[in-house]
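> example.struct
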């Protein structure tokens, strides 16, 4: 492999403009597709095929097509003019409802009870003003609006013709404008619920700070602005192609708001890291072996490029492994991130050598050569640190491992959920709407459950049976109230809304969803076959439970994958075991830190949020895949350097110390770059992005600095030359990948150096 990559690097170096123009054409084509398609399309809902809630939603599209679009609510909060169900305030809400229902994109929910005439001579039931009740104006019921018992808050339920992301541009803004204009006339406020917020990639300016700091690290590490620009440029090109390609396909492939953010995070981090490894190796060859750029660049691609290839391949395999779980939105996220990583590898192996040709021997200044000559035989900080680790290996290993086990303790109490109004910051509309509804109606009104009651074969349901169904549902523990929505034309199913007594993430609500599905039919009479539950709350519960169930299996996949890939690369049994156990330690400590910060609220003010809540349900599985790949990057570069020293004749601690000194500086720089990029996302306004940014930044910090740069050299010292042991029979059948570049070194010793023409400019 090293020889093939050497030839690829030499080709790119000798024909720079061919390679540069090819990549520029690819980037321009992708950008053109994005612009032609009007930008990307972000899905507002996350679904998992095959879950109970998704099955109900699929049935609703057939039985109640008018109810299959987006849903949400407007929340009106009274000002200083008293109740919203009296006088001018009531008329203002009536005007808002009239204006909103006049829009083509909003459907008015039918009142199924209106078709049931009261008995002759019977009076209409009185409205209890101390309990939640429909809004009435001059004796006429205003459809879709419910007012709290104290009149301070009103909820207007909206049924849209399409999902939020499919609505014409500006639809939600128009709805909010109508509501706000009527509310302000009576000194009330109109707030929109979280489910009606248009979804877009939650990118702001905070990530730019991380990129700026990463650029500073590149300058300090490479000692040259000219050299530092190259990793940054190649990373941006790779992200532009990968992210642009995903957005170009977003009209036919469903993208969640997390997908482009993760692609940007991972693409920038690995893109800069991979280019840094190669540029740093090129500079070392030019400084320490006095090679020209024409000689050093292909050799760097052959040696450091081999490690980059396998490091990137490890990340790609870890991410694509998520596809076996069978969760569609997770598969899309993983594949987009994997393609971005693969692009980072290809660009580092082809475009980077071409750009290095433009820089040429100016990559290393005369001053840098003089400084290297002076320091050639001096002992650096990395060598001194490696020596201390080797001498105190037992104590250091015990302290680090013990500390990480303590850090992992909070992970045992991790709970999972999806973001909603309750997890937003206090100043946002969606959080204020959530709090207003909770205070005036109770938490359950923020967690409505769409309930579908299915009749037995041969039986038919009618509107006249809805009151009985409501009474039966209200007799189930955990139900606050139930509201009928209608009966399908063929009478096979009835649709109701169930309001639980507690909020969307409460265990009581979770238990209620399972009770309705498992035994709800028993409370509704002999003619009922089953009860299904959907709605945002039920969907989120199903997603969280599905992901929690498959997470252990994914960890098992990661462990097996790690052992196989590292055994192939290092031709060793003990090195893969050590690397995998180290990763399990770091991932446990990472989830412990995430739980302590976002669920327990430790240091939440420092990280810019004021609300704790459950951990995003798909965060652990995605973070595990990403961190595994990135952790193996550092394992690959650090241990391959030690193996290279071992192959070239050094033994025991000498190989460990020398290999550590050669690789640690660039590994430290690469880790700092990754942490900087990920940390820039911690200060996003989006709670989901904030959690991902923190988890990845904390995970890289723990794994790179505590596991790879501290525990790994200590354990390698313990193992000595036994670290490279492998049974003879297994060594014979295992392919030799030559990551350390031994075959390339043999080739260069016997191959005459061909002169490379210098690039001229006019």
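> example.seq
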């Amino acid at each position: 492999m090293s020889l093939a990559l050497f030839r690829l690097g030499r080709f790119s170096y000798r024909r720079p403009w061919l390679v540069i123009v090819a990549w520029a054409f690819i980037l321009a084509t992708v950008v053109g597709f994005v612009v032609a398609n009007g930008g990307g399309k972000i899905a507002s809902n996350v679904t998992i095929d095959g879950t109970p809630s998704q099955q109900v939603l699929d049935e609703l599209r057939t039985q109640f097509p008018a109810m299959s679009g987006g849903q949400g609510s407007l929340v009106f909060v009274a000002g200083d003019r008293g109740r919203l169900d009296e006088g001018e305030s009531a008329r203002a809400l009536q005007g808002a409802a009239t204006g909103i229902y006049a829009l083509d994109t909003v459907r008015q929910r039918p009142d199924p009870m209106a078709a049931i005439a009261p008995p002759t001579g019977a009076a209409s039931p009185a409205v209890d003003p101390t309990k939640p009740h429909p809004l009435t104006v001059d004796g006429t019921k205003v459809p879709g609006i419910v007012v709290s018992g104290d009149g301070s808050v009103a909820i207007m339920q909206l049924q849209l013709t399409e999902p939020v992301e499919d609505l014409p541009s500006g639809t939600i803004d128009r709805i909010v404008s109508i509501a706000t204009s009527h509310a302000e006339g009576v000194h009330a406020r109109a707030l929109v619920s979280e489910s009606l917020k248009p979804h877009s990639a939650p990118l702001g300016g905070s990530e730019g700070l991380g990129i700026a700091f990463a650029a500073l690290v590149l300058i300090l590490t490479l000692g040259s602005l000219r050299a530092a620009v190259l990793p940054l440029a190649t990373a941006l090109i790779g992200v532009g192609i990968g992210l642009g390609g995903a957005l170009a396909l977003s009209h036919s492939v469903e993208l969640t708001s997390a997908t482009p953010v993760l692609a940007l995070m991972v693409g920038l981090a690995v893109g800069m890291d991979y280019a840094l490894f190669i540029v740093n190796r090129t500079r070392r060859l030019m400084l320490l072996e006095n090679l020209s750029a024409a000689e050093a660049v292909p050799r760097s691609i052959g040696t450091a490029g081999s490690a980059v290839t396998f490091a990137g391949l490890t990340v790609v395999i870890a991410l694509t492994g998520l596809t076996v779980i069978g969760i569609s939105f997770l598969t899309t996220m993983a594949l987009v991130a994997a393609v971005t990583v693969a692009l980072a590898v290809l660009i580092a192996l082809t475009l980077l050598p071409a750009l290095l040709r433009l820089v040429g021997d100016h990559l290393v200044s005369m001053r840098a050569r003089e400084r290297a000559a002076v320091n050639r035989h001096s002992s650096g900080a990395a060598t001194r640190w490696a020596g201390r680790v080797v001498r105190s290996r037992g104590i250091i290993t015990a302290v680090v491992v013990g500390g990480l086990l303590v850090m992992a303790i909070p992970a045992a109490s991790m709970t999972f959920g999806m973001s909603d109004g309750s997890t937003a910051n206090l100043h946002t509309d969606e959080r204020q709407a959530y709090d207003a509804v909770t205070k005036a109606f109770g938490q359950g009104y923020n967690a409505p459950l769409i309930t579908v009651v299915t009749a037995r074969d041969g039986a038919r349901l009618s509107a006249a049976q809805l009151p009985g169904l409501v009474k039966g549902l209200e007799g189930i523990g955990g139900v606050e109230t139930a509201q009928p929505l209608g009966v399908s034309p063929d009478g096979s199913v009835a649709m109701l809304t169930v309001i639980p007594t507690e909020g969307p993430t409460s265990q009581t609500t979770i238990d209620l969803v399972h009770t309705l599905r498992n035994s709800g039919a028993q409370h509704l009479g002999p003619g009922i076959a089953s009860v299904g539950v959907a709605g945002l709350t039920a969907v989120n519960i199903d997603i969280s439970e599905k992901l929690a169930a498959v997470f252990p299996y994914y960890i098992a996949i990661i462990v097996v994958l790690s052992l196989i890939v590292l055994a192939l690369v290092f031709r060793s049994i003990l090195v893969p075991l050590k690397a995998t156990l180290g990763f399990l330690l770091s991932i446990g400590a990472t989830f412990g830190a995430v739980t302590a910060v976002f669920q327990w609220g430790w240091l939440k003010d420092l990280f810019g949020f004021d609300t704790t809540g459950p951990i995003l349900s798909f965060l652990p599985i995605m973070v595990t895949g990403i961190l595994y790949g990135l952790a193996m990057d550092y394992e690959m570069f650090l241990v391959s350097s030690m193996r290279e020293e071992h192959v070239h004749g050094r033994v025991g601690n000498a190989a460990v110390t020398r290999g550590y000194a050669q690789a640690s500086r660039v590994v430290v720089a690469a880790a700092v770059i990754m942490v900087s990029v990920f940390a820039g996302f911690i200060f996003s306004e989006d709670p989901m992005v904030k959690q991902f940014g923190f988890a990845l930044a904390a995970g890289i910090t723990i794994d790179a600095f505590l596991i790879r740069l501290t525990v790994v050299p200590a354990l390698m010292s313990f193992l000595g030359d036994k670290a490279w042991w492998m049974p003879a029979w297994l060594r014979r059948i295992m392919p030799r990948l030559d990551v350390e570049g031994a075959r390339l070194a043999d080739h260069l010793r016997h191959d005459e150096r061909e002169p490379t023409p210098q690039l001229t400019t006019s």
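> remarks
The longest helix spans residues 536-570.
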